[in-house]
């Protein structure tokens, strides 16, 4: 089970680095960069909830759907702010099911505010993984 967590975090780290790289470009008016950043965010979001699910399974908890996973992850202190994660989920769902440039611009702006939260949460999960591996 720890190997599963490790593998998921490894994929997440790579995806998060790519998202950060895209956002660091500062090309807020270039539609291709905006669209690519949104796609990267979708990858990161998917990998995050699947990583959180793996941690919950390790703890013997069962959650299947992303909303349940974020609720349980918040209860288990794997994430600090359930509301922001639910907002990320809402943004991800909106852009996945309906593409509109105005909506994409709003979500792109949101993603830039999410990045620090994503990075801190990832760092916390990596620390927890190390703790689990040594206990």
Describe the structure.
The chain is mainly α and 135 residues long. The protein has a single domain (1-134), classed as Four Helix Bundle (Hemerythrin (Met), subunit A). The chain is built from five helices and no strands. The protein has helices at 2-24, 31-58, 66-75, 82-97, 101-134. Helix 4 packs across helix 5. The longest helix has 34 residues, at 101-134. 29% of the residues are buried. The mean pLDDT is 95.
Q: What would you say the CATH architecture is?
A: Up-down Bundle
- By DSSP, the count of extended strands is 0
Anisotropy-based shape: globular
Strand count, sense and barrel status of the largest sheet are:
none
* Quaternary structure of the protein: single chain
Q: Beta fraction of the residues? A: under 5%
**What is the CATH T-level topology?**
Four Helix Bundle (Hemerythrin (Met), subunit A)
| SSE series | HHHHH
When the domains are counted, the total is: 1
Give the CATH H-level superfamily. Nucleotidyltransferases  domain 2
User: Averaging pLDDT over every residue, what do you get?
Assistant: 95
Helix content: over 70%
- How many helical stretches? 5
Classified by CATH, the class is Mainly Alpha
Task: Give the termini separation.
Answer: 14 Å
Rg to the nearest angstrom?
Answer: 15 Å
Structural class: mainly alpha
pLDDT < 50 runs, ≥5 residues: none
């Amino acid at each position: 089970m720890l190997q599963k967590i490790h593998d998921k975090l490894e994929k997440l780290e790579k995806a998060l680095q790519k998202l950060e790289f895209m956002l660091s470009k500062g090309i807020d008016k270039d539609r291709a960069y905006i669209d690519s950043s949104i796609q990267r965010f979708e990858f990161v979001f998917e990998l995050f909830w699947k990583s959180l699910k793996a941690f919950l399974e390790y703890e013997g908890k069962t959650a299947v759907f992303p909303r349940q996973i974020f609720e349980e992850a918040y209860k288990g202190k794997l994430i600090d702010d359930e509301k922001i994660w639910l907002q990320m989920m809402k943004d991800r769902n909106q852009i996945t099911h309906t593409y509109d440039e105005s909506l994409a611009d709003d979500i792109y702006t949101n993603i830039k505010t999410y990045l620090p939260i994503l990075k801190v949460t990832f760092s916390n999960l990596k620390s927890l993984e190390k703790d689990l591996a040594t206990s």
